[in-house]
Write a structure and sequence with these properties.
By secondary structure, the chain is of the alpha+beta class. Helix content is 30%, strand content 30%. It has a 5-stranded mixed beta sheet.
């Protein structure tokens, strides 16, 4: 499963929010320095989708707010079910 995210670091807590055109917004409780926000993003998404951190791969956007993330070890149907809970 591939997710297109827009990350906002320095939030009070981690949060996943739906956005337009299939894009998602993620607020991260970490600064955007030395890869800290990316590490929190990987751990947060692993927790949300119930997979190991090694199954979450940041494909692009390592230093940009727009990120492309792959979650392996999860069917598209199971991933869609998780995302549906966040759309409500």
């Amino acid at each position: 499963m591939i997710l297109h995210l827009q990350a906002k670091p320095n939030a009070r807590h981690n949060q996943l929010l739906p956005g337009p055109a299939g894009r998602w917004f993620v607020r991260l409780a970490a600064p955007p320095q030395n890869g800290q926000a990316n590490a929190v993003l990987v751990a947060f998404l692993a927790d949300v989708f119930g997979v190991a951190k090694r199954d979450v791969t940041l494909l692009s956007g390592h230093t940009a707010p727009f990120k492309k993330v792959e979650i392996s070890g999860l069917s598209d149907e199971a991933g869609a079910a998780v995302l549906a809970r966040y759309r409500a």
